[in-house]
Amino acid sequence: MDKKNSFLKRFWLPALLFFIALILPLVVAEFWVHVFNEILILGLFAAAFNLIFGYMGQLSFGQAAYYGIGAYTTGLLMVKLQWPLFACLPVSMITAGIGALILGYFCVKLRGIYFAILTMAFGQLVFFILFQWYSFTGGDNGLQGINPPVWLFKANAYYYFSLAVVTIGMIALYFITESPFGYTLRAIRDNTERTEFIGINVQRYMLINFVISGMFCGLAGALWGPFNRSVAPDLSSWQNSGHPVFMAVMGGPHHFLGPMIGSVIFTFLNAFVTGFTEYWPLVSGVVMIIVVLLMPGGLFGIIKSKGYFSSRDVGDVKNE
Amino acid sequence: MNDDIILKTDHLSKSFFKYQVLTDVNYQLKRGEIAAIIGPNGAGKSTFFNLVTGYHTVSGGHVFFRGQEITNWARHKIARIGLTRAFQVSNIYPKLTTYENVRQSILAQLKKTLNFFTPASKFARNETLELLKITGISGFRNTEAGILSQGDKKKLELALALASKPDLLLLDEPTAGMSSEETHETMQLVKQLNKDIGLTILFTEHDISVIFGYAQKLSVLHQGVLVAEGTPEEVRQNKEAQACYLGEEI
Question: Cβ separation of B114 and A181 shorter than 8 Å?
Answer without folding.
Answer: yes
